[in-house]
Queue: 4 jobs
Job 1
Amino acid sequence: MTNFMSRNDLLLFLGFAVVVLAMPIWLTPFGAGYPDLLQRFMIFGIFAVGFNILFGLTGYLSFGHAAFFGVGSYAAVWSFKLLTLDAIPAMIFAVIISGLFALVIGFLSLRRSGIYFSILTLAFAQMSYNLAYSVLTPITNGETGLQLTLNDPRVLDAALGQTFVGQPVPTLLGQQLGGYAGFYFCAGFLILSFFFAQRVAGSPFGMMLKSIKSNQTRMQFTGFNTRPYALSAFVISGMYAGLAGALLAVTDPLAGAERMQWTASGEVVLMTILGGVGTLVGPVIGAWIIKYFENILSALNDNILAQFWSFLPEGVADVVVKVTSKFVGDGWHLTLGLVFVIIVIFLPGGIMEGVRRLTAVARRSGPPGAKSHQPQPAE
Amino acid sequence: MANSNVVLHVADVHKRFGGLHALADIDLQVEEGKTHAIIGPNGAGKSTLLNVIIGKLAPTSGQVVFDGNMLTGRKPYQINQLGIARVFQTPEIFADLSVLHNVMIPAFAKRDGTFTLNMLRSLDSETTIRQEAEHMLEDVGMLNRRDMHAGSLSRGDKRRMELAMCLIQHPRLLLLDEPTAGMSRHDTNTTIELLKKIKERGMTKVIIEHDMHVVFSLADKISVLAQGRIIADGSPDEVRGNPKVQEAYLGGAH
Ligand SMILES: Nc1ncnc2c1ncn2[C@@H]1O[C@H](COP(=O)(O)OP(=O)(O)OP(=O)(O)O)[C@@H](O)[C@H]1O
Ligand SMILES: [Mg+2]
């Protein structure tokens, strides 16, 4: 056991890294082993890990984090347009800009707590969304979305004498970041993001965030100025969102305002709650599950359903197809809503609580000698 | 009047809640190193007085001075950083965290101040603070509960833990709002012994207590509060003999 990281933390980290890097292999049987979807798993995993630093540790529920995601995307595309097609400067630029943006919105929103805080973040995000479509169209290119063109200046690339033929695409040291290269690029960032989140959660700073969630009044009477703690958590999670947004722009260099909409903000809340608020891996799993089912269910249509139910007698099959079709395709949000309601009612701690309960049952039914001495872990 | 040993001076404090005059013309001087008890019937304004001292409530008029620093108008965290810690009447603890972490947190406030961005250091490497917290838990007799969830402690244990949370900051002034309420006789006596031990180290204390056994074992000076006014103060013997106190509070029960 080192002072740097406890053995359990190290194992968790290594396990996580292996699971992520091997995703192209183990997700193939589930029909999800293709780069486009895998990239989204990584990107929304990062978004959720960061969101959990604010919501899970500090207890402040933001309904506006998609704004930072969107800002990250725009910033990255601008970096591709003005500086270079290389992804690294774009990521750095996006993280800085979304961090500054989060600093301003967080500073204002954190003057309130509870539901008022949530509503303030929602209002700021909707404002950003509307501005992106109106006053800010010179920056956002409005409804068309911001995209790369051959005429972009790209001063760094030009200075290096690099020229491109065809549609410009983001690169890493000259290598194009499509397909699996894009996946591994994003996976690297998810693993780094997870590592950093683990460090934060296991640091004195992380303990302060958890204490704010537990009893903010006590924190104040204990000598802590809680505002800068909450603001730091807010900015960090905003930077995570910006990073995720930038990665989306790397894999698909087109930024539109719709990714700042409140439904996108709500989605990351769902991911975090579904997986398990305040746990490290829960939010990532939540993100994967939602993106997976979005992908599977929204691709289904009446024809596929009819085939699936064809073993039923004709009349019955028609009815069943009619009913189930409401839950797939564009209606997949209905399924998501149902699953979410079920989880919140029966497993308020999310999937991670389900996992904990199962292991507890397994342990209890194990050999009697292996009686676990566990005085309620405190997280 | 000016006593050089006075470390806490509550001067002409009034507190009104709408029509209720919860504190009226309170003037209280607490001497360095002494244990000052405040007694009085329910609703007398004792907790309100502590709330004014620690900045939870602003007085309607008057001021509080601690060791030459004006407390009135300061934020609670600033007041704590000046060296004032409080055990609350209803335990204010971090119910979701372990007992050990509850006691470590105040030690960080003492060491690192109101805000530090120490997010890359590991909690496991904070051995000094951990050991300090363990010693503190040992002092209050709770080391065996260190890994328990604070929220699942009994009321008496929560209070002892909260006391440990205050003591680990080595405050100059410790405010105790009924520190033994909800404790067994045995734990009450342990707590009295602990508080006596702290006194030898020179910590100033203001203690609110209904349990006269506790009051008379600890107090150097007693102020009696009734309906927001101080109706008597003096040494324990003086207060015990005061007929006004007998009438208002002790009711001849002692
Ligand atoms: N925040 C508040 N708002 C309105 N009224 C309050 C507030 N705090 C206290 N009071 C009122 O002020 C009076 C004094 O209350 P306080 O809690 O100080 O009494 P106490 O002496 O501590 O009593 P006890 O022994 O029951 O703890 C009570 O009538 C109470 O209802
Ligand atoms: Mg009281």
Job 2
Amino acid sequence: MGSLSGIRRFAGMVVGGALMLLATGAISDSAVTKGSKAAGLDTCVAPTAAMRRNHMDYLKHDRRETVHKGIRNTQYSLAECVECHAEKDSAGAYKPVNADGQFCESCHSYVAVNLTCFQCHRKTPENMSGNGTAMREGDQRQVFGLLQSVDQPLSLSRDELTRLHAKIEGN
Amino acid sequence: MSINNDQPDLQRRDFIGKTVLAAGAATVAPGVLLTVANAGSDEGVSSAVRWGMLIDTNKCVDGCSACVEACDKENGIDLIERPQGQSDEMWNAQRPQWIRKVKLRDTQTGEISNLPMMCQHCEHPPCVDVCPTGASFKRADGIVMVDRHICIGCRYCMMACPYKARSFIHQDIAEQLTSAPRGKGCVESCHLCANRIDAGRETTACQDACNQEGHKAILFGDLKNPDSEIARALKAQHSRQIRADLELNTGVRYTNV
Ligand code: SF4
Ligand code: SF4
């Protein structure tokens, strides 16, 4: 009996430790696609653990705000996921975030959850020198932040990042 | 009146609307100015505005399609590819179109008029009435849209719309604009460039294109603001709703037609 509960306690510690590692983001470096803007940032729009667990709910909540109420400066936006997490290939072109091994797809295929967002939504950041982009002018928020020149590596100070995602809590 | 039709009872709606309005007004302290919620506001769109259009049919030129092309580009409609093996006839009948040129001929005088036709942003939209899922809806600022997350593609709204304003996406879409998501199985129509309006811009793509061509046939603006250019124009000249007999109180009006 005594030894069994000891084993249990040990197992509990191992699981707890693994969860803590996840929660503190100790393995987050490997989850973010190398060469994407996200790789150069300290944090996502919410703590990594919260994003991993809840991103679908955040997105679902804010899509309603955007579509029905016209609120477009929501904290969570699929366009910004794509903007930050898309990786470039050797020729400098963006790879779709739902392509094999890319940020969204790799995790979704691991957990066997269909990734249907991109049946309708754009899978790569928009080429800002291209045509037909509706949000280009007059949208200060985007000009300031994630849509700056795609050729330059993104470097935001802590302060700028805070302003960009005004609701980020320090972590 | 004993006109027998199947239109909703608008007087009753009017009454309900006014009651709600009165209730709303009572909660606002006197002297507090309600400002129009617009660009990136946290409250979202407000019913203090109603977006609409005034189209001067005399100024719309035969053979010009600048507005149509601008709309196609703005909303990524030009990125839609024809399904493999589809005939010209089928493609032309089914390809998505938010705005199209219509030519009218008076059978008695032979007079020809040209006008752009799109979703008329009805105050009492039949498309919303018939939608079984709530995907078709009217925003507080009068813009009628489809929430494609909810649309099941039944196409009731396409049948209900008297203006043939809606299109259905029949095929998988390879590329979209960030600002214009689109996929197989949903209905869509003109949303008065809602993304531009929400970003604080005050013109639509079709209006910009028409102005650029020098025709200036399209005027977009807030119908509820008496000082707006469109409200002043509506006050100064005679305009018409297309199929006014349906009592939909369209947000898009036409002069000289
Ligand atoms: S014109 Fe057609 S699509 Fe537009 S609001 Fe009216 S019924 Fe709906
Ligand atoms: S096609 Fe979509 S928007 Fe139209 S009535 Fe059906 S569910 Fe509603």
Job 3
Amino acid sequence: MNKPDFVPSSLYPAKTKRTLTLSFIAVLGFYLISSITTESFIINFFLKIGNITELVGRFFPPDWSYITVIYPKLFETIHMAVIATTVAVIISIPFSLLAANNITTNKWLYNVMRFILNIIRTIPDIVLAVVFVALFGIGAFSGIIALIVFAIGILVKLMSEIIEAIDMSPSEAIKASGGNTIQTIWYAVVPQILPQFISFSLYVFEINIRASVVLGLVGAGGIGQLINQRINFLDYQAVSTTVLVIFAVVVVIDWISGKLREGLV
Amino acid sequence: MIEFKNLSLTYPNGTKGLKNINIKINEGEFVVIVGLSGAGKSTFIRSINRLVTPTEGELVVDGENILNHNGKSLRELRKKVGMIFQSYNLVKRSTVLKNVISGRLGYTGTLKSIFNMFPKEDMELAYENLKRVNIEEKLYNRADELSGGQQQRVSIARVLTQKPKVILADEPVASLDPPTSHQVMKYLKQINQEDNITTIVNLHFIDMAMEYADRIIGMRAGEVVYDGPASEVTEQTFEEIYGRAIREEDMRGGEENE
Ligand SMILES: Nc1ncnc2c1ncn2[C@@H]1O[C@H](COP(=O)(O)OP(=O)(O)OP(=O)(O)O)[C@@H](O)[C@H]1O
Ligand SMILES: [Mg+2]
């Protein structure tokens, strides 16, 4: 047997290796520059671990007597999410149809709807809350409005995509038998999207519960407001009670709504 | 009566779907339109209920030129002209009954139809029509639980529930096997005879055309190239319409397997 004239020394060609090495150096450099300019080094986490453990200690044990204060605000949070989700669902129905190109065949109208939708979706929920708190003052009302706008952005996006994927042939049949536009949508479109629509609405409800906690931090009502207040009073034991309650409620609501959604699709 | 007067249709992209058609279809006739793929059969049929709009000439249905119909008058036209589709076009997640009763939507107010408030006579009519096509025991089944032939029968019941004067059928058996195809054609023929509903069917099987039609219209490249009673049609006629020899795929066959 003669010696092979070439033995590959690597699994990758030299060019790939070079590209990989260069990318690796670039990413590493980027980390360094970012850390220097923002003066936040990951290493701090380990240097300050002492502070952290000391602070965490102050959260324990949770102050269970605080629960009586939490309850009303907890229900406020749930109410906010329920109202916001319901209103958002109702408003989303016509807009989902307008943002679906198989229903809204007018190109101009469709593009305007998509444009508005994309703008809404670029605004984070917390920014919406800050804006509405500035407009309507501190309290649950501002939070609800922020949640509605936020939820509409998500729902219309998800729903219009589902609508665009439906089978249009039944619509043609209803149209051809003399049904009007609303009847066509109700009989030929709605049955095809209803299960997903309910499922998405529950999903948005879950998101709204979590979002409304965060919104409270900027004064938009609900249980988040308590956390903010207690932290300011350095009452960390009450904060940990609140966080535990929120955790339990979110888990329970996610579980229930998850079960409901499973049964639907 | 349906009358095409110098009727032409040019699609927005410039394709000529129909070229100067002059045809009269009498009440109660069973007309089969044949022609190769792209000949303009669907365009012809879909002009009659204005799913497409001819660009020149006149199209008279029931004494009115339908080319300028819109909104309400268009819906009135479509109540009179029912349609059956190749892919049945049922709402698959809805029940058979709900699909059939949807034939009444043209007669029902928007609000009433949203709350499913159909008059008792309409429900009775829907059920009677399901019985006519022998599928009444599937009343509450979801449409997607039915076989293709059963779904097409449901779509026949739906069109009957609309009480049309004309039934258009665009390749109603193209997705079905031979025995089921004959079964569906027999229902259409029977309804045509019992109710005197003018029936216009697109088919590309010449044996079926000869068996069920009273009259055959042959199309090629948007033009009517043959029009005559089915009794006078021979394979030769089809070769002229198609502009080529008859092949195996032009025959549905299979009636004896029933
Ligand atoms: N929406 C449309 N836009 C442009 N051209 C079209 C459109 N629909 C049909 N055509 C063209 O018009 C001609 C006639 O089409 P039509 O669908 O009426 O034929 P057909 O006889 O029904 O054919 P098939 O047997 O394949 O269904 C074809 O050349 C087709 O490509
Ligand atoms: Mg066709």
Job 4
Amino acid sequence: MSITTSFDVNRIRQDFPILSQTIRGRPMVFLDSAASAQKPRAVIDAMVGAMETQYANVHRGLHWMSERTTEAYEACRDAVATLMNARDRSEIVFTNNITGSINLMAHSYGRGILKPGQAVVISGMEHHSNIVPWQLLRDSHAIELRVVPITNYGELDMEAFEDLLRDGKVGLVSITHMSNVLGTVTPAERIVRVAHKYGAKVMFDGAQAIVHRKVDVQALDCDFYAWTGHKLYGPTGIGVLWGRKELLEQMPPFMGGGDMISSVTYEKSTWAQVPHKFEAGTPAILEGIGLKAAIDYVQGIGYDALAAHEAALTEHALARLSTIKGLTIIGQAQDRGGVISFAMDGAHAHDVATLLDRQGIAVRAGHHCAEPLMQRLNLDSTARASFGVYTTHEEVDALATGLERVRSFFK
Amino acid sequence: MKQTDDFADLYQEVILDHGRHPRHGKRLEAFDVTAKGDNPMCGDRVQVWVKLDNGTIGAVGFEARGCAISVASADLMVEAVQGRDPADTKALFEAFRDMARTGSCRHCAAELEAPLERLAPLSGVHEYPSRVKCATLPWHALIAALDGVKEATSE
Ligand SMILES: Cc1ncc(COP(=O)(O)O)c(C=O)c1O
């Protein structure tokens, strides 16, 4: 990988209007991109431009505006298909966020394809959105829920994973591709190989991973892959579920309504082809147009440059933060992305976050929607810094200096 | 623009001190009522034990797991409520909550001025709506205990 040759972060920053904001009279140091990323001008312009010049409902009208809007919206499906290297654009289902994608899976695949007595495997470092839908399925549909433990380094215990699959009862593995707390990137290819060996299908929660690396669903050989637009510099309100077409075709619909039918009578309705079978109601039209612009923006930079930039930042941050006395970095995975959780001796994560905020530095603090992981780590909460395409080395330095100040204040 | 990165206007010495060394941060062996408070959004937890003394609040102890603000608030609360009857305590809580939300108490009864002054170091949280709950959680637990309710969550 050629390191940052074509990458000028200061030029990138000019693409994000919000970064010129000041917080408490200081430049904003935004280290909370893993919660939601900022939006480039291209996304803003695409959405505003659509509202100002080209907007109507999609898939319905026979008039010019509707046709053009449908084209613009459906172009997002093509962009997503290319981004993920899907075999076919009809494998891309739009949802409202990844939480919607996983709930779709738990309802449609869980109730429609899995049989009572089968099991779903998740891991010990999932976001609540990849835990709770499966619990609801377990309780309503007699599906067993199994959890792969994590090691003290914050990596998946792959031996335990294989053990969980051995009895052949597992129908679906649904695991994060990158932890939003530990930054751990999970060994996706290996997970798929092992799961397929025992006849289980695999879905990844790619909410974090797709922001940091190229996701090629054919190379991964997985069966489903879900993510959320707002973390990839796109708007809120749109998420993605990619699935193998033959699987999507077997699955019953999740929500019923307009746009998802082929015909409706009181006796019986028939469903539209995939992906529309899963897309009831007026979709997130403007958000789709915005997400297309976000994908074009990311593709314009290129995942190689993006990953190299974040790897350099992460390395720099780990080096700087590890020199701060009393600061513990949570999670030491070999393969990791630009999300770093930490705890400070004698200071609660909320106090740390508030005192960083007073220096204009935005980090997240809390359980990060991953309470079972927190219990495993024996922590109530952590503070978390996360990086985006626009994050600079100077911002990482500001974090380190800010933390030194917090530490001396609490000592 | 003035840089307002000062730590001390939010974390005054009183808060740091009571947050680090709470005077009343222990379970009471002999008590009449107790309740837990839980802030599910951030994981802060507190339990409050109260010994009643002829209808007024006698000894109070608490155990808190949370940030400096929640621990300090619990400790300062204990000092503020001892000797008050439940109705009085609720009135003080309402005034304190108003102060935590807005930075000052706008319609405070004159007799509450003295105890509120003692609680005033916590008023800086009004800048952080999500952290107002850190300051009010111990009060929710106390009021729940006085009302005979076992558990409270911050609103
Ligand atoms: C790993 C992971 N999964 C799922 C989610 C949920 O995303 P959303 O709230 O957009 O559905 C998040 C982010 O909050 C996440 O980091």
